[in-house]
């Protein structure tokens, strides 16, 4: 599988996301591009208490998976985190790297939140998240899946 490392991203402006943006747009998703735009305009910098942005980097230092956790902006419960901007480069899918990052995000989120929610509209993502213990349901606003962390 090669040498891969999960790193917390503290300054997104120092990470080249051009490949992930290009691929995600080709896949019909705009959220990686939105991640960059929101970071640069200050809308979402993953800097509030409990928030974090992570990437999986290959042996060449290139980012191949990205994702993070924010305080859920749609919830009135302060202990709810939201999985955000999770994307795996096509070449690196189905080899455990998405799982590696998801586990890291869940571990980090469990330090600060009691619930982790997300929204997805794809069957593959639904299968992926439910295989890691997320429950499919609309118990939380603007969410399709949730997980109790404590």
UniProtKB/TrEMBL annotation:
PROSITE patterns: GNAT (PS51186)
Positions of the N-acetyltransferase domain: 15-150
Signal peptide annotation: none
Highest taxon, organism lineage: Bacteria
Stored CDD domains: NAT_SF
SUPFAM superfamilies: Acyl-CoA N-acyltransferases (Nat) (SSF55729)
UniProt entry tagged with the keyword Transferase: yes
Pfam (any one): Acetyltransf_1
Keywords from the UniProt entry: Transferase
Protein name: Acetyltransferase (GNAT) family protein
